[in-house]
Design brief:
Number of strands: 12
Number of helices: 8
CATH superfamily of the largest domain: Jelly Rolls
CATH topology of the largest domain: Jelly Rolls
Structural class: alpha+beta
Largest sheet: 4 strands, antiparallel
Order of helices and strands: HHEEEEEEEEHHHEEHHEEH
CATH class of the largest domain: Mainly Beta
Distance between the termini: 51 Å
Shape: globular
Number of domains: 2
Strand order of the largest sheet: 1-8-3-6
């Protein structure tokens, strides 16, 4: 077991531990193991038996589903504080429903199934937090599906950029920097890479964003939402 004192601020501030008294949070963190995951390696793999629950401490990961045709469907961006494998908290967990892959080198906290089950029994609020997080994911996917029917490509891409800026954006004097490629943005916005490139170029011309390889700088986020 790891020393909970090495846990990062991201772990302590995660919604997974929200509302817990400090001694309870300390005990939960102390029961975790620290794992370091190299970039392009899987943290969890779709279809495999869910044996561990993970909390991202540092780095970035992507959450995706592979279709039967081998096409990758990007579901979510994972950043410090996010939890992977919530299905592990139930008595008889199913398989992981999607794959979480490290985009950069990551450090995660990992709890074995038996350990997280015992902790959830001792601290019922932990299970409630897991349920709330799951409902949050469901709300995101409902909104995303509804957007396919009711919103334009520009609106979906604008909302994706604003959401990513809130989630993982880095503030600079001139704007908010988002580290994401056109392919990644198009996947999260449910549009084609060509459309994402076209829309981004239009925004560059209007001064709403600036762009360089693998990065987008939001200069005027409000202009995106108004467009």
């Amino acid at each position: 077991m790891s020393n909970f004192r090495s846990a990062s601020i991201a772990a302590l501030s995660s919604s997974f531990l929200a509302g817990l008294e400090q001694p309870a949070a300390d005990a939960i963190l102390a029961a975790a193991q620290i794992q370091r995951i190299s970039a392009k390696s899987n943290i969890s793999t779709e279809g495999c038996r869910a044996t561990r629950l993970f909390l991202v401490q540092s780095g970035r990961a992507r959450f995706y589903h592979l279709t039967k045709q081998g096409e990758l469907v990007l579901l979510a961006w994972l950043v410090p504080g996010d939890v992977i494998g919530l299905v592990t908290i139930v008595k008889s967990p199913l398989c992981y429903m999607a794959t979480a892959e490290a985009i950069s080198d990551c450090e995660v906290l990992a709890w074995e199934h038996s350990v997280i089950r015992k902790l959830a029994s001792l601290h019922p609020l932990l299970a409630e937090n897991a349920f709330r997080i799951s409902l949050g994911y469901l709300r995101t996917f409902i909104d995303r599906h509804a957007g396919l029917v009711t919103k334009s490509a520009e609106e979906r891409l604008a909302e994706t950029l604003v959401r990513l800026s809130d989630q993982s954006g880095q503030f600079h004097p001139e704007g908010i920097e988002i580290r994401a490629t056109n392919d990644e943005l198009s996947g999260l916005a449910d549009i084609s890479p060509f459309t994402a490139s076209r829309v981004l170029n239009n925004w560059v011309r209007t001064g709403a964003v600036s762009k360089r390889r693998g990065r987008v700088l939001l200069l005027a986020p409000e202009a995106l939402m108004m467009g």
